[in-house]
Amino acid sequence: MENSFLISYLLLIPLIGSFLILLIPRDNEKAIRYAGVLFSTIAFILSLVIFYFFDYNHSGFQFIHKFGWIANLNISYNVGVDGLSLLLVLLTTFLTPLTLISSWAGINKKVKEFTFLMLMLELGMLGVFVSLDLFLFYIFWEAMLIPMYFIIGVWGGDRRIYASVKFFVYTMFGSLLMLVAIVWLAVNAAPALGHFSTDLVELYSISPKFEKEVQIWMFLAFALSFSIKVPLFPLHTWLPDAHVQAPTAGSVILASVLLKMGTYGLLRFCLPLFPDASIAAAPYMAVLAIIGIIYGALVAMVQKDMKKLIAYSSVSHLGFVVLGIFAMSEESVQGAVIQMVNHGLSTGALFLLVGIIYERTHTREISEYGGIAKVVPLYSVALMVASLSSIGLPGLNGFVGEFLILVGSFKSQVYNNWWFTIFATSGVIFAAVYLLWMYQRIIYGEVKNPRMNDLKDLNKREIFVLVPIFIFIIWIGVYPGTFLNVSKASTKKVIEQVLVNPNSNLKVTENK
Amino acid sequence: MYFTFQDFYNTLPLTIIGAGILLAIVIEIYSNKSEQILPWFSVIIYLLAASHSLATIFTREIYFNGMLGVGGNVHIFYAIFNIAGIIIALLSIDYIKKYGMYYGEYYILLMISILGMMFMASARDLFMVFLGLEVMSICFYAMAGLNRRLLKANESSLKYFLLGSFATGFLVYGVALIYGASNTTSFDVLRQNISSLTTNIMFLTGLLMLLIGLSFKIAAFPFHMWVPDVYQGTSTTVAGIFSTGGKAAAFSALVVIFSQVFGGSLNSFMPYLAIISVLSMFYGAIVAIAQTDIKRMLAYSSISHAGYIIIGLAASNNDGIAGVVFYLIAYTFMNLGAFGIVALVEGKNEENLTLSSYAGLSNKKPVYAALLAILMFALAGLPPFSGFFSKYYIFIAAVKSGLTWLAVLGVLSSTISVYFYIRIIVLMYFRDSEKDFDIHKSPIGLAAVIIAVIFVIALGIMPGDVLALITSNL
Q: Which residues of A touch B407 (CB under 8 A)?
């Protein structure tokens, strides 16, 4: 489907919604909350419509909507989805209404601003996934920092200011170097293209022809920005601070969607634009990913704070995704894509569950809990499912992604080295250790802390938030085909773009 | 040498302001209510001049015996100065009441200084640059000390005067050397002989002197010393016009010299400009972090922004020049908005000028805080605000001229500057206020800031038309 307005409507809904919410009187918190959920649900329904009409067999971009924007620089408003981005769009629109509902109890001050910012955040995230022009992409990529910065800074924990400023400066540093790389790419591709352009599809045809050395510089600038977002070891230090200090809804969105923007960027931009550099960098990226997998797991193991534990587990899980992307085999990249969704669902559920219990007890220290299985049976079951999904138990979603990644990187032509897979596999075992150990310390045994005796179990609203996530956790675990088919054609195309590469000997013309 | 009335008609924006000044003096002499009349009178004059400049933007001519050029980017600069004048005049109404410092000459001096800026933008002769600069600067010296009961204002006025005269000395000396080398001060004649002049050491020395003289006004690094003290000491509204109109005027003269005289071929000065640019960006950004006074912080931020704008001059291609003009438009609105909020929050007798008085502003004055937050994000160069697009365009120009390293350094210094811009937001939104104070109501001032912020957002989302206008008039 060419020139469809659906994607633009999808972007407009949160935008219009957020400004309508500004018109609702501040005191009417209930209306504000319902309006937020309403608009994000409409966006979700619209993304389902896109999903329904999506053509699985077509590898290119679909639902393209394009018109000229800044004529002098040939910048156009250009949006569309392919199999890779569609899954992440669905993940975003699916989680936003759920996090909004989940925050009804946790967010009590400045509800209006919170809902406004959450919808703005949704707009930014969707924009990142659907942009087909590097300039437009960059605008969404950077603008999205602003709502997240406020969400951490205003509604966060005790050290929220430190965490929010660190998050902001750290991620901005990376993205600004990417900006120079975007400019450089557009300027130097202009002679071959005949005009200055930041259009992604046009650059796909030129950029891989650059000399390898040039590609490596470009790759580094882009990859630095994406690696900070992922976050790849050793650029992960902003993550535990931001996760721990953010309010529950912020943590969920941060872990489930924001981190995926980094891996999505690697897959969408780094690989197809700079194939030679990507192949050259693959072993190094894999080593960093594996260090991340093991380091994240080991650090998670010794955490006393539940949220911090899950934050470090993200470092470990995202390591798998990066490993899968740079293995560049069909299984591994498919696994990486589905693992992005999986991590969004399972870590999102874990953060929601931590948030739920934190709202009741106001502590996240694992040692404060113990033996609450008898007090809150429903909660214990929910935490079990989420943990097992995160660990990668067969039958649940995590297994599918990790298995595909490990198989794919084992037979990867690019790595051509079994050791990568062998070390990475240890991460799966570590995940079982830290999550099950946390589960054991929180849920089993005798009730140590007397005030846990009158803990309330999940209420209807919380069940309503968690059940949809669990449905998808099981769905992907039992029948991943529904989702793997979506990304299949696009994944193949990315791998072709990298491995079947034209001669890269386009000299950069010096125009001093 | 003679000129006709036709010349006055052809340079109508200048004539409008000139006539406005004379009328304003008459009003001030004969009316007791000049405090109420003059601001609105001057706003009307600025509006007339700005709209006429924009309406006649495509008629590019040179009048007054080759002294003044009109049309094209000159008129874009006219519009910038006049809109800046409107915003400053609106802000001043309540600000002056707050301080009880109304002196008749305030609005008149403001108008004269804007006339000087317009002379600089349309100069086609080195003497016109000098004349415009002096008309503007002398008004500025007087305006800096206008709040004469304040010791600081007197100090800042004197400091500005002494250092400013020194810089003008450089400029005049430069003009003399250029004349000595080329026998002319006309840009047109200089351009015709440029190939023989670029090897003439006397000419190059003169040009360097000229650049130094103008660097003082644009507040570039080694010539920036006056900026923080003067901004801090003088009235906030006046500091607002110093940092926007004054800077844009000096840049407009540089743009004319670089694009008209050298046709973008002056690579021998590229290293000099690149070095000034890097030093200004980093010095401004790093020192701003240590500031506790918001006006001083904005002063260092303006030094840093001068650095970014010079990147466009250093690139010395068409994109660079267009980038400078676009950046100046964007910067004028961002900075006017920021100084506007400072003027609104400021209490009597220079209260509430420290950064800490902005703590918890989002609870006290949510609208002020939201506007200032947008302006800070814009100054820090975040999309979708105009500060982002202007930097993007300047970087394109730099990369096209093979100055990628300069773009990378620019990016690094903006990362540093993000820190002090978002610190204001941290204070306003994430902290509670330390002391209670009343903020004077000023609906007109607020309206002026909102106008600026609308431009900041519109230029960020829809830069295309303005950019097309600039590039079609290069």
A: 180, 183-184
